Amino acid sequence: MRQGKVLVLDEIDKLNPDVFALAHAVLDDIRATSITLPTGETISPASGFTVICTSNSVPDSLPEALADRFDLYLRCATPNPAAARDLDLDGGYRAIL
After folding, report:
1. H-helix segments, the chain
2. What is the predicted pLDDT for the residue at 92?
3. R_g over Cα of the chain
4. In angstroms, rounded to a whole number, what is the distance separating the alpha carbons of residues 50 and 97?
5. 73 burial level (CB within 10 Å; 0-12, 13-18, 19+)
6. Which of 13, 31, 33, 81 is the S-S candidate for 55 at Cβ 3.0 to 4.6 Å?
7. Euclidean distance between CA atoms 16 and 13, whole angstroms
């Protein structure tokens, strides 16, 4: 987040309920997001920070408060590594693949 890298949350529908609160903060509007660590340090996303979430379930299976945070849902019946590499994520969009 602080280095502007891509964060992949694999199997987001299987997250521990305690982790959902952190996922909400990470997936909020990137212009307003910040996370305060237990140390008291507050982290805001650097330019280029992007979140990609994967799931084998349909988006409707996510809690509404989490599902509302996604800009894009992409259904992929057959995984294609080349297509995933070609995704343009420079705009800061978050996607469930």
Report:
1. 17-27, 64-67, 81-86
2. 52
3. 14
4. 13
5. middle
6. 13
7. 9
pTM tops 0.70: no
Residue ranges of the chain with per-residue pLDDT less than 70: 30, 79, 83-97
Residues 6+ positions from 67 with CB-CB distance below 8 Å: 59, 60
Query: Do residues 71 and 30 lie in contact, with contact meaning Cβ atoms separated by under 8 Å?
Result: no
Res 54: pLDDT: 86
* pLDDT given for residue 97 in this prediction: 46
Burial class from Cβ neighbours inside 10 Å (0-12, 13-18, 19+) for residue 59 reads middle
Element holding 36 (H helix, E strand): strand 35-36
Paired tokens of 80: 């294609």
CA distance 80 to 64: 28
